[in-house]
Amino acid sequence: MVEAILIDLFSLPANLQNNIQGLLCNTLETIEKCSSIPAPFVYVMCCHSQRCKWKGEQESLLPALRDFQSLKKRLEVVHALSTAAALYTIKQRLDEKDLSVIKVILSSVRKDAMKVYIDHLFTSVYQFEFEDLQATSDYENLQIAEPQSEGQMQDVALIQSEIQMYLESLPSLNGELTILRSSLIPDDIFLHGFTTRAGGISYIPTLSSCNLFSSSKRRDPQIVVKENLRRLANAAGFNPETFHRVKIDHANAVCIMGKTEPDSYDGIVTNQKGVTIAAPGADCIPVLFADPVRKACGAAHSGWKGTLLGVSMATVNAMVSEYGCNLKDILVVLGPSVGPCCYKLPHESAKEFHRIDPSCVRLFDSSDPYIDIRRATRILLESGGILPENIQDDSVTDQKQNITFCTACHPDKFYSHFRDGANFGTQIGFISIKD
C-alpha cells in the first residue's frame, strides 16, 4: 500500500510554468481516485528557480488543490537548488512519519536519473514504484524538454558528486564532533580515538548524528555515513580513503592488512603507516591495540560472543606472529561499551562468563544475570600475557582519564543497541601509525 506520493516537477521548463496548475490538477485527481488510502502524503518537488516565478509555492497551487481538500492537508511543496537537496528534504519528511512505501510520478526522461538518486540516498528499507507523469495534449512537450543541467545529471558520477556536495554543506547536528583519546597510547607514534554520537549529519533520533555504520535494515544510507566519516577524518587527521573497518561476524577471525582479506572478521592488525583501522561498537567493545616498540597496531570488535571466543587475544596473537611484537609491549584500550550495570544475558550464556571468572556475572542465579564483558576481556588478556598495567578499561578511577563509559547509560553521548532497539547508530574506535 502506497504511503506517500512524490510528484517530480523539478526539471519542467520555465516556459511551461503557466500550465503547472492543469498538470497538477490532472495528477492529483488521479491520485485521489486511485489511491488505496483516503489521503496519502503528497510531496511536490520543484526547482528553486521556479519559486520566485510562481510567487510562493503553496499559494500558487491553491487553485489546483481547491477540489482536493483531503490531499491539501497532506501536501507539501519542496523547492531546492538541486535534485539532491529536494529529495533529501523529502526523505526527512518520510522518516519523520516512518513512511517506507513511495510512488514517484515523474517525466519518463527523469526516471533513470531518479533511480540513481534514490539508490544513493535511500536503503532497502524503502520501497519505490514509478509512474509516468501524464501529459495530455497541452503538456506533451513535458516528455521532451529538459534543461541541459538536468540532462547532464544522467551521469552516475555527476549525480554522486552532487549528492556529496550537498551533504558536505549541511550543518553538524548535536554539537561539535568529539573524539575520546586514551593517555595510555603514545600520541607521538599513534593516531587514535573513540567517537561519540555528536557532530555528524544523521538526523533520525536513534542515529543522530555521527552514525558510522550503514545497513540495508536501517534508514541511514551509506553516502551519509561516508560524509560522517569524512568529517571525523578531518577532525582526527587521517585519510578516509585509507580507512578499513572490520567486517563483523561476532567471532574471532583476524585480518592482516596487506594479506588476503577474509569474508568476515572481528579483528584487524597492521604495521603500515598512514592506514587507519577501526572497529565499531554500539554496546559491543571497540578494542584498540598498540605496540610502540614494533610500531604495530590493531582493532577488534568484541561483543559477548566475540569475548567468549577470545577475539582480543586473537588480535594480540596476530600482532605477535606477524610483526614480532612482545606481549609485554602491547597496550590495550577498551572503548565505550555496555557496562555490567545494564547488560543482561540468558542464564545459559551467563554460565560461560561465570566459567571465565565468577566476578564477571552478577545475580548468577537469576534467569537473566548481569554480565561484565569488559572484565572478562581483561581477564582473558591478562591470562594471555598482557600486563595488567597495559590495559585501560572501566577500572580507571580518575574520571578525567575514563573513556570506557557505559553506552546504555549515556544516551546523550553514545549509541546503544541494547537501549535503542533495531534502528541503532554506531560509534567506532580507530587507530593508525603516524607517518
Automatic annotation (TrEMBL):
Protein name per the record: Purine nucleoside phosphorylase LACC1
Family label: Belongs to the purine nucleoside phosphorylase YfiH/LACC1 family.
Assigned keywords, A-Z: Acetylation, Cytoplasm, Endoplasmic reticulum, Hydrolase, Immunity, Inflammatory response, Innate immunity, Metal-binding, Nucleus, Peroxisome, Phosphoprotein, Transferase, Zinc
GO cellular component terms given for this protein: endoplasmic reticulum; nucleus; peroxisome
TM stretches of this protein: none
Keyword Hydrolase: yes
Coiled-coil ranges (or none): none
Keyword Secreted: no
Oligomer and partners: Interacts with FASN. Interacts with SDHA. Interacts with ATF6, EIF2AK3 and ERN1.
Gene coding for it: Lacc1
Protein origin, superkingdom: Eukaryota
Source organism per UniProt: Indicator maculatus
GO molecular function term, any single one: copper ion binding
GO BP annotation list: inflammatory response; innate immune response; regulation of defense response
Record field: catalytic activity: inosine + phosphate = alpha-D-ribose 1-phosphate + hypoxanthine; adenosine + phosphate = alpha-D-ribose 1-phosphate + adenine; adenosine + H2O + H(+) = inosine + NH4(+); S-methyl-5'-thioadenosine + phosphate = 5-(methylsulfanyl)-alpha-D-ribose 1-phosphate + adenine
Signal peptide: none
Cell location: Cytoplasm; Endoplasmic reticulum; Nucleus; Peroxisome
EC number of the protein: 2.4.2.1, 2.4.2.28, 3.5.4.4
